[in-house]
Amino acid sequence: MYVRDYTVPGRLQDSILYSIEAGGKRLRPILLLATAEAFGAPVGKGLTAAAALEMVHTYSLIHDDLPAMDDDDIRRGLPTNHKKFDEATAILAGDALLTMSTQLIAEDPSLEQEEKIFLIQELTKAAGPRGMVEGQMQDMLSEGKEISLESLEAIHKNKTGELLKYAIRAGAMLGKASEQSMQQMSEMAEALGLIFQIQDDILDVTGDAEVIGKPVGSDVVNDKSTYPGLLGLDGAKEQKNHYVKTAESALTEAGVEGTVLSQLIQYLSTRDH
Amino acid sequence: MYVRDYTVPGRLQDSILYSIEAGGKRLRPILLLATAEAFGAPVGKGLTAAAALEMVHTYSLIHDDLPAMDDDDIRRGLPTNHKKFDEATAILAGDALLTMSTQLIAEDPSLEQEEKIFLIQELTKAAGPRGMVEGQMQDMLSEGKEISLESLEAIHKNKTGELLKYAIRAGAMLGKASEQSMQQMSEMAEALGLIFQIQDDILDVTGDAEVIGKPVGSDVVNDKSTYPGLLGLDGAKEQKNHYVKTAESALTEAGVEGTVLSQLIQYLSTRDH
């Protein structure tokens, strides 16, 4: 709904809506809203923070799919943005989504000034060159190279972990979580990011392309380092279970165990797409 | 100086620094700081707003130069970012600069909360899909087509005018300009944007490639609509002089005539690069 308010009819709007409406799991906004709810934030308080997050995630997919980057033709079961439109339009659609993300938060009349600033600081830090963008750069530089488990985790922490952490921290802040709970939820978010990535890697080996909506085995084709590649399939599953325990303990310490967040941890560690 | 604080050493940082340090006229930050000074803002108050603006401008140049867009090899007398590095790195460097721009403002301890929010709102509005990004889309769609003077001005208003307006409005706001002065300075900024663009088009016909730092005649090669193309060279100069008068009147009405802003109008309308 926000996209139409912030764009004008035409090719750019069509291209942005195409990628936003392509769906996906909406995992990041759901995590943000579930965390806000767990900490008792008023309903609707996290809507722009969640939409901004989905915009940043969608922009990153559009740019990562470009021929100069991962060169993917299919995303969420549909042609990627540059296949449906063209490369120039896809680059601009990504740029537009990134720009709108902070605009949306800055213009939300239901947020306090200090909430807006917190959200923009955390979102840009997570998405920027000490977060997601650096992660994508490192991911590209590591293609075709043997890398250590430590390097692999550092890449994922930047590439996907930081935005998941924003989701959790933004939700907790909007629910006025204590400093200590914020810290525990950050730890939970870090574990969750690794669970997410390990399961992604496992699905690239064992998954069903039709259920996932993109080809499997592409990590091997692209010569990417993965958890199953480094630890074997059983080792990867074991590592994942370790992080599930870490995440659940953190929830308990922060006093939000038994909420929908526990179910999300279970879902993320067992999802089939 | 900000770039190093917000990035980590490596290829992405090198690529960002390469384009930021390539220089250029620094017109936008100078305009912002000159306007802030004209309205009596404390020295240093506009530094992050100005740096953020230059980051957005630089990101837009990096992305516009890409092969899928304007496909330029030379910028500011040096190889373009994707020629010096590669396309993937250039896309990410642009993304990083855009993300850092709002981060820089949000984290500036010398700005009030409401100043941060005003600056972020205006910068994202100017840069986004109702401003610069839409302008670039329309510019690409109009290549090879005959367009009216009205359409040409609409494209330039979005593509370059909105960011110049941000420069002027941000500076005036930091100097606590009145509502009425803000309105007059917005009109001045709109005229200035058109002066800038007309002179750009004129230089593409009459300029010296070595002084400009990029090839001349590229508008004709790329089949772009320009002021000299639509109005003839003399007609374009006349149109420019009309806007110079508009801009100078607005300065007088806002009570900041005779400041460095008057000199900047003169400089922009007569610059040779």
Automatic annotation (TrEMBL), chains A, B:
SUPFAM superfamilies on file: Terpenoid synthases
TM regions (residue ranges): none
Family annotation (InterPro entries): Isoprenoid_synthase_dom_sf, Polyprenyl_synt, Polyprenyl_synt_CS, Prenyl_diphosphate_synthase
Cofactor: Mg(2+)
Gene3D superfamilies associated with the record: Farnesyl Diphosphate Synthase (1.10.600.10)
Keyword Lipoprotein tagged: no
UniProt keyword rRNA-binding, yes or no: no
Pfam family, one: polyprenyl_synt
Keywords on record: Isoprene biosynthesis, Magnesium, Metal-binding, Transferase
Protein family (similarity comment): Belongs to the FPP/GGPP synthase family.
Record-given protein name: Polyprenyl synthetase family protein
The species this protein was found in: Halobacillus kuroshimensis
